[in-house]
Amino acid sequence: MISFSVSQVGTWSDVNRTLGLVKSGKDGPFVFGNKPLRVITFLNPPWVGRRVDSESFHGIDKYEGFLVDLMKGLSKRLNFTIDVEKVYEDALPDAEIKRQFNKGVHLGMVVKSMREMRRKYYDLSPELKEFGYTIFTPRPVKELTGLLAFMTPLSPPMWALFASAMVVVSLFLTLVNQFNPYEWRWLAKRGQVEPSQGGNYNAWNSLWNVFSSTVGQGAENQPMSFGGRIIIGTWWFFVLVVMASYTANLAAFLTVKPVNPIRSMEDLPRQNKLEYGFIRSYAIRRLFETADSFPLRDMWEKISANPDWLVGSNEEGLKRAAKGKYAFITFSGVRFRQIKELCEVEMVGQPFYKYHVGFPIPIGSPHKDRIAYEIETMRQVGVVEELSNRWLEVDRGRCKESDRKKDNGVLKMENLLGLFVILGAISALGMAVCVIEVIVFKLKKMDDENIEEKQDDNNIEDVSEVVEERDGAVEEREDGVVEEREMEEGGFEEELEENVFEEDSEDGVQEEAVVIEEVELNDIQSVQDSA
C-alpha cells in the first residue's frame, strides 16, 4: 500500500491568474533562497533618488524613493538581496531595458506606463499607481505694470463713476456758494469777510477743494453754510470708504496670486496667447492624431501646422512653459520630480488619458508570478498606499500650487453702489437745507427792513416836535419886543433912549434867534445820528 501526504506548495491568484510559491516550512527559505536579484535603475525622484549622505552607505541603501522602499519590502518577503547592477542618469528607453534583460538583469527599478506597445520589450508588474496626462502652464503673476497700472484695483466704470461724483459734488458746492446768503460770496458782498474770499467756492475752487479732500490734503476753506457743510462732510465720508477699499485692494493685487485663465483642456484651443504641445515621442501623440472631436481634434490641427510646438523631453517642455507663452502637456507624475522649473509652472485641469504604471520584468521570468502575488498582498494590507502617501502625496520642498479664486478682486460698481446712493441722497439733503437757509435769510431781511422803517418814522416825529417847540419860543420873544415898543411913548429923550434901547433889543433878538437856530440844527443832527 502506497502512502502519501499533501502539503501546500503554492497559491492561485484569481486577480492575476498566476501561481505563486510559498514557504516550505515555518522558517524555511523563500523561493529565491537569499539569492541576489540584479536590477538596473535611473535617478528619477521620488521613485528613485540618491540620498544626501549616500557616501556613508553601500548598494541599495545609497538610494531612496518609492521603488527603493518597495524593493526592500519585496526582498524581505521573498528572501532575496538587491544588487544594483547599473544606475543611469537619464531615462531608460525600452530597447535598452530589453538589452540589459538579455544580459541577465532580473528587474528594472524604473516606472513605466502599462501600455500594450511595451509588451514586446518586457512584461510589467501589477499596477503601482494611476496617472494621466495634464497641462502645465506658466504660473500667472499679477503684476502692476504699465502707465495706468495704479488703476487696476478698480474697474473702469468705477473710476468713471468716481470722477462723475467729484464733478457733481463740486457743482453742488458752487451752487450753494452762489445762492446761499451765508456763504463766502455773500459775506464778501456785505463786507463781513475780505473781498478776495468771496471766490473761495466758485466753480474752479470748488473742484479744487473736492480734489484736495480726495487725496487726503483737506479743503483749503470750509463752507460757511450748514447745507454746504452737509455736502462736503458727506463727500469726506465717501472718499474715506473708497480710498480705504482702493488701498486694501491694491495690497491684495500685490500679494494675492492671480487666477490662471487656463482651467481645462477645452480652454487651450479657444485662446491664442499660449502655444501648446507635448513630447513628440509620447504615446499621447497617437491619441491626438486619431481624435475626431473637440478639443483634441482642434488642438492637433494647430500642433501639426506648428511642429516646433513639440518638445523632446519633460525638462525642455517645463523650461519652455516656465518662460511663459507655452502650455506643456505631459503625464501628471512629472510633478513629483524635483525640477526647479516646477516653481514657475502650474498644473491645471483634471488628468485625462489615464494609465497605470509598473516596473519592468523580463518576459518569461520565473520570478514574475511570485513578485506579482506579493505586490497584491502588500496592496491589500496597505503597504503600497503608505508608500504612495510617503513619497507621492507630499510637497517635499517643491512649490505649492496657487490658491484659486473665483474672481480677480477688482472692485466693480456694484460693490460700492450703496455708497454712491448715500452720497447722492445726503448731497440732495444738503441742497434742500441750502434752499431753506435762503428762505430764512430773506424772511429775516424783510423783518429787519420793517423795523428800520418804523424807527425812521419815530425819529421824524421827534424832530418835528423839537422844531415846533423852538418856533413857539421865538414867537413869544418877538411878541414881547412889540409890546415894549408900544408902551414907550414920551419925550424926545425918551424916544431917543427908546430908539437906542430898541436897536439894542433888536440886536439881542437877532442874536437869540441865531442861537436858537443853531440849537435846533444841532438837535436835528443828533436825532438823525441816533436813528
TrEMBL record:
Keywords: Cell membrane, Disulfide bond, Glycoprotein, Membrane, Receptor, Transmembrane, Transmembrane helix. The record marks I262 as: Crucial to convey clamshell closure to channel opening. InterPro entries: Insect_Ionotropic_Sensory_Rcpt, Iono_Glu_rcpt_met, Iontro_rcpt_C. Residues 485-509 have a biased composition (Acidic residues). L-glutamate binds at S113, R118. GO terms for molecular function: AMPA glutamate receptor activity; transmitter-gated monoatomic ion channel activity involved in regulation of postsynaptic membrane potential. Residues 466-509 are annotated as: Disordered. It is a multi-pass membrane protein. Its main location: membrane. Residues 467-484 have a biased composition (Basic and acidic residues). It is found in: Cell membrane. PANTHER family: IONOTROPIC RECEPTOR 20A-RELATED (PTHR42643), IONOTROPIC RECEPTOR 60A (PTHR42643:SF24). This is Glutamate receptor ionotropic, kainate 3-like. It comes from Branchiostoma floridae. The lineage of its organism: Eukaryota, Metazoa, Chordata, Cephalochordata, Leptocardii. The gene is LOC118408425.
